[in-house]
Model the fold of this input.
Amino acid sequence: MSTIRMNKEQRARLTAELKEFDQLDSGSQVQSITDAYNALLSTIQGIMLNSENPDGHDRAWSLLKDDAFKDLAAIQEGKLDALKDLKTKINRIGQLLLKP
Done:
């Protein structure tokens, strides 16, 4: 029972973080973008520990730590146009993790 509640809490937190990330735009501070990315990273790590969908979670993790991280690095170098690509990848990660 505790695991089910934890998963619901994690799903709710992930949903909230995805919405927050989606509200970022090219006028957002680089630190705000980085903080939102790191919050998602932490939440996804927690979700993976209670994984009921290891394949989907592995794909989401790979997309986050490899592809999305490259976009984040570009943003941190001042290339804010990479935010659109990052948001697309974060959206895909959300779809992978939140699917039933």
Remarks:
- Residues 38 and 93 are 14 Å apart (CA to CA).
- The chain has a mean pLDDT of 84.
- The radius of gyration is 13 Å.
